[in-house]
Amino acid sequence: MEVIYATVHVKDENMDEFLKVMTELARRSAAEPQCGGYHFVQRADNHNEFAFIEFWPTPDSHEAHCQSQHFKTLFPKMCDLTEEGVQDIISRQLV
Amino acid sequence: MEVIYATVHVKDENMDEFLKVMTELARRSAAEPQCGGYHFVQRADNHNEFAFIEFWPTPDSHEAHCQSQHFKTLFPKMCDLTEEGVQDIISRQLV
User: Fold this and answer.
1) CA–CA distance, B4 with B66 (Å, rounded to integer)
2) What's the mean pLDDT when you consider all of chain A?
3) Which CATH number fits the domain B2-92, given the four candidates 3.30.70.100, 3.10.20.90, 3.40.50.2300, 3.40.1190.10?
4) Are A71 and A34 contacting, i.e. CB atoms less than 8 angstroms apart?
5) Are B94 and A19 an interchain contact pair (Cβ–Cβ within 8 Å)?
6) Which of A41, A44, A90 has the CB atom closest to B44's CB atom?
């Protein structure tokens, strides 16, 4: 299982639009048949910091996600609303 | 849902013992009735970096985890095998 911990920083003026776009991207991604889990979270100690925690059972499942219509449409929109784009940490699940 | 992304750095000489202790802690934690998910992962780009991603439905469920026998026994052991202890990022799940 490939596990992605992706973080973004969002300025207050972009917050409403970002939440709208990212909520839709998270819902559609979580609903993908090959998705092992997709969680959109907000840091408790900093409301401008968000993360999305993704679980992809196989490299193919992640690739299919990246090729999906909702990703191609919403991901660039979401990135434009962040300060420095997305910072990814990619890991392998041990347990 | 409270989501915890906790990271640790482990030196090569402590690796085998750390993996043994942390694998047991992860398995027992994931099996707790109130646990919403517990994932122990290793960074793909740095084998000395690990994270455990925890999902706790309520503050009580996390408190019960911290009071469990396996946590009280294994968590301090695990910490002793890391370089700087555990770095926690606590978040709220939005989606």
Assistant:
1) 13
2) 97
3) 3.30.70.100
4) no
5) yes
6) A90
Using an 8 Å CB-CB cutoff, list chain B residues near A38.
Answer: 95
Q: Is A92 in Cβ contact with B45 (below 8 Å)? A: no
Interface of A with B (CB under 8 A): 2-3, 5, 19, 22-23, 26-27, 30, 37-45, 50-51, 53, 55, 89-95
- With b for 16 or more beta-carbon neighbours within 10 A and e for fewer, the A49-60 pattern comes to bbbbbbbbeeee
- 3-class SS of residue A95: coil
Q: Sign of dihedral through CA atoms A88, A89, A92, B1?
A: negative
The pLDDT tens digits for A6-43 are 999 999 999 999 999 999 999 999 999 999 999 999 99
Looking at domain A12-92, its CATH architecture is 2-Layer Sandwich (3.30)
CA-wise closest residue to A52 among A63, A60, A43: A43
Give the dihedral of Cα atoms B66, A3, A82, A77; nearest 10 deg. -140
Asked if residue B59 has pLDDT above 90, the reply is no
Binary contact (B94, A26; C-beta < 8 A): yes
Report residue A34 as tokens. Answer: 């090959």
